[in-house]
Amino acid sequence: MELKRVVVTGLGALTAIGNNLQEYWENLEKGTSGAAPITKFDASKFKTQFACEVKGLNIADHIDRKEARKMDTFTQYAMIVGEEALQDSGLDLDKINRNRAGVIWGSGIGGLQTFQDEVKSYAQGDGTPRFNPFFIPKMIADLSAGHLSMKYGLKGPNYVTVSACASATNAIVDAFNYIRMGKADIFLTGGSEAPVTEAGIGGFNALKALSTRNDDPATASRPFDKDRDGFVMGEGGAALILEELEHAKARGAKIYAEVVGGGMTADAYHLTAPHPEGEGSQRVMEQALEDAGITPEDIQYINVHGTSTPLGDIGEVNAIKRVFGDSAYKLNISSTKSMTGHLLGAAGAVEAVACLLAINKGVIPPTINNFTPDPELDQELNCTLNKAQYRDDIKYVMSNTFGFGGHNVCMVLKKYEE
Predict the structure, then answer these.
(1) pLDDT in the model for residue 367
(2) Cα separation of 302 and 320, whole Å?
(3) Which of 305, 355, 407, 410 is labelled catalytic?
(4) What is the pLDDT of residue 119?
(5) Element containing residue 194 per DSSP (H, E)
(6) Is residue 31 over pLDDT 90?
(7) Which site among 44, 126, 272, 347 is 20 to 30 Å from 183 CA-CA?
């Protein structure tokens, strides 16, 4: 089978550092932290009292109030970024074959706020079961893809991937595979998450996964720093329009970049901890490079998983050194989670957008909040610390996402060339 070429023709983003694509990129380039005290609930009794919340967003500006009541926050975020990506793509939905256009979305948790609210209401009541009829449709993760398909009449493959923090990259790679195998022309893909809730913060606190730097939230996400103490919870989402190349060219679409490779592996090691040697991380990068038909020397930038946890950062960096050898020292590496926080299942989508814009603009977004070098990490590596760096030779970019349960997904993007 001759595989089709797949390109990205539209983008949308909603994060703690920007409510649209332009704001997101401008603040990435500036090195802006999105972390601040939690406003969604009273977090004063929690070990972690801050997060990277979406700011100043009025859902009613984007979604009809009646429709919004049928959606958990994570689905509302999906609808907002999906609309931006479709508008950005310039697609005329009346001129496409909607049977060959689908939605593959990613969310690691789904409707956590809805689940929490409904169970809490029942527990505080008199035992009489009074549940919202939209409880289940709001809670289950697949309804984000369902709502998007219904709004735009996209009748191709439609589902949500759930692979913890690898979910969105998993979704994008799945969409890429469907198109290159000739099974679809277009996908609206990406991911969204809304985990800044009492249950979300409390649950991850119980795992001791979150930073507790309550005295200085803006600098709490510190990938590669000696004093990193856990990740910062983020929320929001991002969307990409993936399109078969000839389909995109026929309509004169602008093309951000080409998707050329993907890999998926499992650590098969631990519920929440990464493999200490980064074994699964190594194999997934090797898979993605092989799938793309390139060598380690071809990559200029890796947007790493880099969550700011003591074990995870070391394992990933060591895996990069094994995969790339001497070429590792010619790379730019950065963790944009230092600015957006960790969007869990949506992380891969917002980071894919960062990668795509890095290719287009010749700018490597920084890893901010690096104050004290970690002696256990190789200081000769270029981790793009504290300030963006500019490269005019960015051709291939890699994006890593790893999730609880040992899920690893890696994607390779390429500057578009005829």
Answers:
(1) 98
(2) 9
(3) 305
(4) 96
(5) none
(6) yes
(7) 347
The Cα 296–Cα 248 span in angstroms is 29
Q: What is the model's pLDDT at position 275?
A: 84
Q: What is the pTM of this model?
A: 0.98
Determine the average pLDDT of the residues in 83-94.
98
User: Which pLDDT score is estimated for 130?
Assistant: 93
Q: How far apart are the first and last CA of the chain?
A: 21
Active-site residue, 407 included: no
Q: What is the mean pLDDT of residues 365-393?
A: 97
Q: Return the pLDDT at 289.
A: 98
Specify the pairing of strand 186-193 against strand 158-161.
unpaired
Surface-to-core class of residue 139, CB atoms within 10 Å of its CB (0-12 exposed, 13-18 middle, 19+ buried): buried
What is the three-class DSSP state of 188?
A: strand
What whole-number distance in Å separates Cα of residue 308 and Cα of residue 317? 12
Q: What is the pLDDT of residues 304-325, one digit of tens each?
A: 999 999 989 999 999 999 999 9
- What contacts 24+ positions apart, CB below 8 Å, involve 37-40? 37/217, 38/196, 38/201, 40/196, 40/197
Q: Which amino acid, residue 87?
A: Q
pLDDT confidence of residue 198: 98
CATH of 6-250, one of 3.40.50.620, 3.40.47.10, 3.30.750.24, 3.60.15.10: 3.40.47.10
Dist. CA 86–CA 11, nearest whole Å: 8
Q: What is the mean pLDDT of residues 39-61?
A: 98
Catalytic residue among 147, 275, 342, 407: 342
What the block records as the tokens of 37 is 């005290």
305 carries an active-site annotation: yes
Query: Quick one: tokens of 153?
Result: 């009449």
Within 13 Å and on the Cβ side, how many CA atoms surround 374? 23
Q: Is 400 helix (H, G, I), strand (E, B) or coil?
A: strand
Question: What are the residue ranges of CATH 3.40.47.10 in the chain?
Answer: 6-250, 262-414
Q: What fold is seen in the domain 262-414?
A: Peroxisomal Thiolase; Chain A, domain 1 (3.40.47)
Strands 101-106 and 186-193, bridge-based pairing:
parallel
Overall size of the chain counted in residues: 418
Tokens (6 digits) for 395: 């051709």
What would the mean pLDDT of 80-96 be, rounded to a whole number?
98
Contact 365, 384 (CB under 8 A): yes
